[in-house]
Amino acid sequence: MFDLGTSFIASVGRDPNAVAIVDGDVRLTYAAWLKTISSVVAALDGLGLSAGDHVVTALQNRWEAATLHWACQFAGLIITPINWRAKADEIDYVIDNADAKAIVFEEVSVEAVRQSERAAGIIRIAVGEPASGSDLTFTKMTETAAPTAVPRAAADATSLMLYTSGTTAKPKGVPRRHRAERMAALAHVAQNLYGRGECTLGVMPLYHTMGVRSLLAMSLIGGTFVCLPRFDIVRALELIAAERITNLYLVPTLYHDLVHHPRFAGTDVSSVRKLGFAGAPMTDGLLAKLTDAFKPELFVNHYGSSEIYTFTINQDAAAKPGSAGKAGLNQHIRVVKLNAANHDDLAATDEEGEIIALASSDEAFEGYWRRPDADAKSLRQGWYFTGDTGFMDRDGDLFVTGRADDMIITGGENVSPVEIESCLSKHPAVGEVAVVGLPDERWGKIVVAFIVATAPVTAQELDQHCRTSGLANFKRPRRFEFIKAIPKSTVGKLLRRQLVAGDYEPATPARSDSHVA
């Protein structure tokens, strides 16, 4: 099987003159990009880095970050990208945990790197302007004279290590091999029906599996990766029109912000024919709005993770709202009973349980970095226990209902936030919604809906909407809180724990008592 460096060489052979990457004034063909990548490989060699060393990056989605990703694949280095917003102590943790030998940073991350004790003891490479006298510069690296790089990593070598976001514990390293990364990219091409020469908006971070997948998938088909360093709605709309973007692969939050922006209606988005989303469920209301706005040929709900990548695929997401579809090309899944002892303790049709996936998938990782405790919890009897809840319907389609930790147990009944969120999203005055369980002396927990309203609305009106929608009585929110913004992670994932902790800014509803009967 190809390693990723060989895969890139093959792409250059097929499409040397196709535009590979765009970032502002930078436009590189595959042939030209290979020359730059080769210079960076030679520069990395000159720094004394060896195959298997970890190179940490704290970069936005810029062409230099993508170039470093590919250079590490050729050199056999393990690229270890982290959030460019990481604090000094978080950088210290990753450098120490990965035994990293180098860190690459830019202006937005320079202060945290300067404050990092561990960064002071390794090679530091500056991208852009933040270099001090002791730092190397990426620009100098690209000027290094070099022959065309020869791939040095085997398909079984480790390609990169992503870190899962930690909530109550430190983030876990997820090492992934070249062959798993390439297989995941091939499956992504097939499952999203990408054709030769596609053009994608490269906005999902390259420290996130969705961003990496977009980068690799474009390389396999001679496609173009258009960099957007951080999500800026106006700039995203400008790039969609100017670069004739053909496909979007985003989290639901970014789609929401895109189609609700005042400039969306006046932007030519006709080139976008394929939509894909992952990272979180999409509400029925947003599915309908996107279908109307883009009229896509393909609308894919992709359910996966950094560890396994693809669990399931639904290639007609709008036709069956909420459905994550069936197992991907390289996967087999099951739903087992909550707290199941083993993988054979299957949940019945329509019964909510935990989603598990076969760990021997060609796309899968093989265990967490130095975390046997996490392996023991998640990898059992050849299966990966996701910690996600869901159920299979009579058609064999999977519905993901949330995280096991997010399940609300109220009066002895299990309630999934996702179903309630989808119901409320259909109300015309609801811009965004998040549902959590809050402690209650009588019920254990009560269902509470946090609403970002786009028009005057009362709690009583929203409660009536839930009643008439057919939502079961015990699932109806007992309280509505109107807030200014839903707390989210840097990649747009809903942070329910902040709502539980009271970490939000209230908004004043037009008129209502927040409690309902």
Radius of gyration, in Å, reads 23 Å
Which percent bin holds the helix content?
25-40%
Main beta sheet: 10 strands, mixed
The backbone outline, from C-alpha atoms, is globular
Give the N-terminus to C-terminus distance in angstroms: 62 Å
Question: Which architecture of the domain at 407-500 would the CATH scheme give at its second level?
Answer: 2-Layer Sandwich
Structural class: alpha/beta
CATH class of the domain at 407-500: Alpha Beta
What's the number of extended β-strand segments? 26
How would you state the average pLDDT, rounded?
Answer: 93
Hey, roughly how much beta strand do the residues contain?
25-35%
CATH topology of the domain at 407-500: GMP Synthetase, Chain A, domain 3
Low-confidence segments, ≥5 residues, pLDDT <50?
none
How many helices does DSSP assign?
A: 15
Protein name: Long-chain fatty acid--CoA ligase
Domain AMP-binding enzyme C-terminal: 419-493
GO molecular function: acid-thiol ligase activity
Keywords: Ligase
Structure commentary:
- This protein has 517 residues and is of the alpha/beta class.
- The chain has a domain at 407-500: GMP Synthetase, Chain A, domain 3 (2-Layer Sandwich).
- Helix content is 29%, strand content 26%.
- It is built from 15 helices and 26 strands.
- The strands form six sheets. Strands 12, 13, 14, 15, 16, 17, 18, 19, 20 and 21 form a ten-stranded mixed beta sheet that branches. Strands 4-3-5-6-7 form a five-stranded parallel beta sheet, with helices on both faces. A four-stranded mixed beta sheet has the order 2-1-11-10, sandwiched between helices.
- Strand 12 (247-250), helix 10 and strand 13 (274-277) form a beta-alpha-beta unit.
- The longest helix is centred in the N-terminal third of the chain and has 17 residues, at 30-46.
- It is globular and about 70 Å long.
- InterPro entries: AMP-bd_C, AMP-bd_C_sf, AMP-dep_synth/lig_dom, ANL_N_sf, ATP-dep_AMP-bd_enzyme.
- Keywords: Ligase.
- Residues 11-369 form the AMP-dependent synthetase/ligase domain.
- This is Long-chain fatty acid--CoA ligase.
